From TrEMBL, chains A, B:
Pfam families: FAD_binding_3. Catalyzes the hydroxylation of L-kynurenine (L-Kyn) to form 3-hydroxy-L-kynurenine (L-3OHKyn). Required for synthesis of quinolinic acid. Keywords: FAD, Flavoprotein, Monooxygenase, NADP, Oxidoreductase, Pyridine nucleotide biosynthesis. GO terms for molecular function: FAD binding; kynurenine 3-monooxygenase activity. Pathway: Cofactor biosynthesis; NAD(+) biosynthesis; quinolinate from L-kynurenine: step 1/3. Belongs to the aromatic-ring hydroxylase family. KMO subfamily. Gene3D superfamilies: FAD/NAD(P)-binding domain (3.50.50.60). This is Kynurenine 3-monooxygenase. It catalyses: L-kynurenine + NADPH + O2 + H(+) = 3-hydroxy-L-kynurenine + NADP(+) + H2O.
Amino acid sequence: MEEKKVAVVGAGLVGSLLAVLLAKKGMQVDVFERRPDLRKAKAIGGRSINLALSNRGFKALSLAGFDQEIRDISIPMYGRKMHDLKGNLTYQAYGKDNEAIYSVSRGQLNQKLMNLADDFENVKYRFDHACEDIDLPSNKITFANGESKEKNHYSYDQIFGTDGAFSSVRGVLQKTPMFNYSQDYLPHGYKELNFPANPDGTHCMDKNCLHIWPRGEFMMIALPNLDGSFTVTLFFPMKGEVSFESIDTEEKVVDFFNSTFADAVPHMPTLVDDYFSNPTSTLVTIRCSPWNYEDKVMLLGDASHAIVPFYGQGMNSGLEDCSVFFEMYDEHKDDVNALFEAFSKQRVPDGNAIADLALYNYIEMRDLAGDKDFLLRKKIERKFSDMYPDNWMPLYSQVTFSHIRYSEALAAGNRQRKIMDEVMGMNNIHENWDDQKVIDKILSLIK
Amino acid sequence: MEEKKVAVVGAGLVGSLLAVLLAKKGMQVDVFERRPDLRKAKAIGGRSINLALSNRGFKALSLAGFDQEIRDISIPMYGRKMHDLKGNLTYQAYGKDNEAIYSVSRGQLNQKLMNLADDFENVKYRFDHACEDIDLPSNKITFANGESKEKNHYSYDQIFGTDGAFSSVRGVLQKTPMFNYSQDYLPHGYKELNFPANPDGTHCMDKNCLHIWPRGEFMMIALPNLDGSFTVTLFFPMKGEVSFESIDTEEKVVDFFNSTFADAVPHMPTLVDDYFSNPTSTLVTIRCSPWNYEDKVMLLGDASHAIVPFYGQGMNSGLEDCSVFFEMYDEHKDDVNALFEAFSKQRVPDGNAIADLALYNYIEMRDLAGDKDFLLRKKIERKFSDMYPDNWMPLYSQVTFSHIRYSEALAAGNRQRKIMDEVMGMNNIHENWDDQKVIDKILSLIK
């Protein structure tokens, strides 16, 4: 592929990193983005969105040599802190020692990646270019120009679709035979809220953890920003008795937050304004197969596997697409068709696995994170894993701190869950959880 | 809705029947079709396609008063006849007495329905109109004219999308929030072949049954036509060792058919020509939810639930959409939003159920229809059902000869399968199947 002229459609996180990695192989890379250059545009309110970078993401960033630069604009979170109805806190470490996930602003990260990509002579950004169609036989893309809607046409050897959950590139593939596709919405949506910084610029809560208010049918979370504020997200039913639809007046918002998130309310001076002016967004899971069209088009990131945000793996899995692609690149670089097919074949089951894990984790976060049995289960797992690290890596660690394939992590997690179901069924487990016989039981089941 | 001006997009079987039923309620109905009028066009080779009409389809047709006219252009098939590798035949009745499914040509049926619809003053067909987009706030449809590609715009109170598996109307809904959608291709495709009529115009095999050549990983079927010919369909893997991809020379086709469908070859004078000139088509399952967009758009037929053809229910389920819609019509006719929501809510699970049943029946037809255990299972079921008709209606009969909701039939079928699994596990069941203790066993399990 070295000599090829390629297009990357979508200048988000995955698109910008991919452009750099392709450029480093010597390709001529045009990156198209339907929006204006976000480095020149004003921030769009209510959708700042914080992300949690973890090991998979950093590994991909390090391929481009960017990992330290990105670490510098992020805040480590070593565990989750659960806030119950009365404001009592429970802490749970994510991993061991210094294992952490890193809170970073999507906008800042994207700008940084664009600036770094701009340093490559063979990467060229074209903003205000909305992909309208692709003629697959000739691999010619039709773009509509932002304001004038004038059409431009460009042809490429290969086209990479990194244009997100509502990908136009994928829309073209969807019309080809044998392309499997699904989009599934959760009945819940989300809305961004905000805890501003203290007057002295410090954070109003512990900044080195992810805060969760688990409430059964819904939840709120908060992630720290560099400027002392927290980005807060309410995940909530779209319709029904307690929902975005039903909580529709100032009074109801105030009552609801006072009774449900009492300890958070003092941190939210603009709650009512935020609630009514910020948009309500939906939560969709996108799957497709294959991710490629012959040797012409390849989908990566949300374009091929958009997932719900509850495992913090949306961005990480998209960035990992890039590192996995380049791990396979050398073996197949003279046969793009083989490269694309091999990548799709390997990566589709991993995309499906992390989609399943993310859906499951929603239940865990909102429902179980405040539950006694759940916390004990985690404690026993942690103890056993500390004693026998080669025999047991907790599922969360496999997903977040390892590079084990998602599909293998999912399978291992299912085996572990069955074992822990048996352990939790032992007599008086809440009293006896620290006994040797609990460890022996796990050892007997693991074999 | 009585006074409304409505559009039906797609003049196929479901669209034409729906147009008549809406017209009978007094609505002004414009029916749009992207193809030319098929009554004036030449038949397209290799895609004639035979369908099997059964009770659900006839019930919907009878709502319009058309059932006898359609019965007159169809041929009853009372059972399936399996052809094994040596040409031995096994017959299995579909139901009791005169229960049959009716072979009919899609083209002839569609023409007939169009002619009948044309008799209604308030139904107007517009051919060569391809739906390009719908502006949902105004319910304005943009059409591209067949040859000139000139755009026309029309607005309607309600729009019914009956434009098939690759529906443009559904494509518009797919972009709205909270619209769940999936398209799944089987790894198998199909190709149409042909047994011509005998020189005297008679059929070369028994015309009153559906012929099947079950071969495990694939199968061939034949349905009778009025002119003495059979429409034959080969269902076959798209790729792999034995597949459309691998059987790619005249010699391979002849060898393959001689060794696999020996008793059919003498009936196929144009086999090689047909194999290479007829297209290879794909088999897709489409699901979505909801089927409506507010009180503006409603999807019916393949547009909302395209299924694989192995239960003979694709057309029947689409026509049944119409009868179910008008069963709910009177209750809600003054509140279109309530009507559309109630219909979607009731019908989505039934569309999913018949999709599942059709996928399962592919395994049954190609794999089990030639299997001794399978045939015995059916025989025992039939005997029990004859003795206790109120306690046991075979799944096939529920789907094909009853009006029980598909979702209920699927659930009942699952219960029956579990019972029959136990019965087939009885000692020496192949020798003792006719004993009273087998009947007693079923009676004990059914309670």
